[in-house]
Write a structure and sequence with these properties.
The chain has helices at 128-141, 168-179, 182-185, 195-208, 232-245, 272-281, 294-303, 347-360; strands at residues 9-18, 35-55, 70-74, 77-79, 83-87, 115-121, 148-154, 158-165, 215-221, 247-253, 306-312, 322-328, 335-337, 341-342, 370-379, 385-393, 406-414, 420-429, 443-451, 454-463, 471-479, 488-496, 515-516, 521-523, 529-537, 543-554, 559-562, 566-570, 576-584, 593-602, 607-618. The strands form seven sheets. Strands 24, 26, 27, 28, 30 and 31 form a six-stranded mixed sheet that branches. Strands 1, 2, 5, 11 and 13 form a five-stranded antiparallel sheet that branches. It starts with 8 loop residues before the first strand and ends in a 5-residue tail after the last strand. With 623 residues, the chain is mainly beta. Helix 1 (128-141) runs antiparallel to helix 2 and helix 5 (232-245) packs parallel to helix 6.
Length: 623
């Protein structure tokens, strides 16, 4: 049985013994014993795992090697191989070649499934529509049913189009949807450097580390534009991460066959940056062929015969990227395909890295403990709304937060194609767990933004310094256009007016005068308020709102509460003029159940706005 030791630390006790000897005349030699002084040193040793492939002269897999057949060199020094595992259930297999009939490997029992990640690189991929057609044909030809596939797009963000699944219909549906997705085609892919591409590959590595075992990325990409920057440190970092996350990249030039007159023609193995990405991550390059699906066939075949070598890290300092070499001794014509660097990451570096990853792919870190919302409170200008990004964290059972703990929160507002229109990052002083009851109060935080009309994805990520993985929440928001020249109603919005002494801060120096209710439940007797706003934008004449009526009804339509009507006069002195109404909803007078709050604004001759808010009254908590 294969055991993944990549996360286990071994503490090896080293005892220092002091030998005290007396003259031979005073004590016989056979009675000499060491004197224990009780000194003990703890040395931390990390077992590093490296996945690699062995091929013969015809690029066939070689499944019959043992640990004695290999030599491992780290930083120019030969290192002992602690363990060698082979996952090769189908034995030696031929190399898939373009234009050559190749029978895919049959599905076979294995200790771990073959995991393949199909990635579409929108920064460099050419012939996009044709590439999707090739992928459709590839899925009909190569898989055998036992694989797990994930589909990913690399663009403004790393978008998981389809999570790992053994259902090929899910994969095909994701590919077909992407083929016609305007949000992907409309991304901002102009750039001066390739930094964004490399950052997204790093995020993908961090994300894939959450799955154990070997993974292969089939990267549909193309030539890189020379940007004049020195990328050696970047490749070194990616190579080390490929070892740590056990992920190899199989790039493919989607341009297919190119003539010598093609400005993107790259002899000697395709685009150099892609070729280097393959070589330094333990993958293999595919180029100069119109059968671009052969890259998938290579990754699929290689996953069927993988070696995993284990050795103890000879240097204890973490986060250092070190070069390694794996060779086969006494066997002519064999070559080893492996990543060129490795790294042992510290817990702190892993936590920071996952926090960055969660900010890019928050959906993969969604937690029931977190919720996020976006509330529109009224127009800020003729083109922008004033809105509150709300975050609520309800600690789960067993969560203990000590006094003075500070966590890190990041919020983002993105367009559907991934373009970030607003972001913030701040330190949050967390509420302390009650030692007597073991309960932790709910954290609620608001951040004020200015938002244009449109569709958005709102996300929030919260990182606990003592936890391995951050928690996140995402929320799709649609913000309507701002009406012009006539009055309109915003709300009602349920929430709470904070006390003057406890007004919450938005994080940028502005006090928030109204806290929207996150969710739709409140306890009987708890404070609950309603905010209703009537506005006019760019009106040529003053507007008289004759009546703004608000009432609470039961779910069956029976009247429960009614508020006194309010009138308002909206002038044309400024571009935006609003009148706000705050009502206190006396929840003590409402029985547990479902209710609806309705607001209607009327001018002298017509209804200019209507809005509703639903909420539920639950019984008060029992002490």
């Amino acid at each position: 049985m294969f055991v993944d030791w990549s996360r286990r630390l071994f503490l090896l006790p080293v005892t220092a013994a002091l030998l005290v000897c007396t003259p031979a005349a005073a004590q016989p030699e056979d009675e000499e014993t060491p004197f224990e002084v009780g000194l003990e040193e703890q040395v931390e040793v990390q077992l590093v795992l490296v996945d690699f492939l062995v091929l013969d002269r015809k690029d066939r897999t070689v499944p019959d090697l043992t640990a004695d057949d290999f030599v491992l060199v780290v930083r120019g020094r030969e290192v002992d191989i602690h363990s060698l595992d082979l996952d090769c259930p189908v034995g030696a297999a031929e190399e898939p070649l373009p234009g050559k009939a190749f029978r895919p490997l049959p599905s076979a029992p294995t200790s771990r499934p073959r995991r393949l990640v199909i990635v579409f690189d929108y920064y460099h991929m050419g012939n996009v529509a044709e590439t999707f057609d090739y992928v459709d044909r590839m899925l009909d030809k190569w898989p055998v049913g036992g694989e797990e596939h994930m589909v990913v797009s690399l663009g403004e963000v790393v978008r998981i189009e389809s999570p790992f699944s053994t259902d090929l219909d899910d994969v095909r549906w994701a590919v077909q949807r992407m083929r016609n997705d305007p949000d992907l085609y409309a991304g901002n892919y102009g750039r001066l450097t390739e930094r964004r591409f490399f950052d997204r590959i790093e995020v993908l590595f961090d994300l894939l580390e959450r799955w154990e075992g070997r993974k292969s990325i089939v990267l549909f990409s193309g030539p890189f534009l020379p940007d004049g920057f020195f990328h050696d440190p970047t490749f070194k970092r990616l190579s080390a991460l490929s070892t740590a996350t056990r992920t190899a990249i199989y790039p493919v030039d989607t341009g297919g066959l190119r003539t010598s007159r093609d400005p993107d023609a790259q002899p000697f193995g395709g685009p150099p940056m892609l070729r280097r990405l393959a070589n330094e991550t333990g993958g293999r390059m595919t180029s100069e062929t119109n059968e671009i699906g052969v890259a998938y066939a290579k990754a699929h075949r290689d996953l069927g015969c993988t070696y995993t070598l284990g050795f103890y890290e000879p240097w204890p300092d973490a986060d250092k990227k070190r070069r390694m070499t794996i060779r086969v001794k006494d066997r002519q014509g064999l070559r080893v395909v492996y990543p060129e660097f490795y790294v042992v990451r510290s817990p702190e570096e892993q936590r920071k890295s996952l926090f960055r990853t969660a900010a890019t792919v928050p959906q993969m870190f969604d937690s029931e403990e977190m919720s996020t919302n976006l509330f529109v409170l009224g127009p800020h200008s003729p083109s922008r709304w004033r809105a509150l990004l709300a975050v609520e964290y309800v600690p789960g059972p067993g969560t203990f937060i000590d006094e003075g703990e500070t966590w890190e929160l990041k919020g983002l507002v993105r367009k559907p194609n991934g373009t970030v229109v607003h972001s913030f990052k701040k330190k949050i002083r967390m509420p302390r767990t009650d030692p007597a009851t073991g309960s932790t109060p709910t954290l609620t935080m608001f951040h004020e933004i200015r938002a244009r009309p449109g569709r958005y994805i709102v996300s929030a990520i919260l990182s606990d310094p003592g936890a391995d993985t951050p928690v996140a929440s995402t929320y799709p928001a649609v913000i309507a256009a701002i009406p012009r020249g006539e009055p309109f109603l915003v709300g009602p919005i349920l929430g709470r007016r904070p006390d003057d002494d406890a007004a919450p801060n938005s994080g940028d120096g502005r006090d928030i005068t109204f806290e929207p209710l996150i969710g739709d439940q409140t306890a009987q007797g708890a404070p609950l308020d309603s905010l209703t706003v009537v506005c006019v934008v760019d009106s040529k004449h003053p507007v008289d709102v004759r009546e703004i009526a608000r009432a609470v009804t039961t779910w069956e339509g029976d009247g429960a509460l009614r508020f006194a009507p309010v009138s308002a006069r909206l002038s044309r002195d400024g571009q935006v003029d609003c009148h706000e109404i705050l009502d206190r909803v006396v929840t003590a007078d409402l029985q547990p159940g479902r209710y609806e709050l309705t607001a209607v604004a009327e001018t002298s001759d017509q209804i200019t706005g209507r809005g509703t808010a639903e909420f539920t009254i639950v019984p008060p908590p029992v002490d």
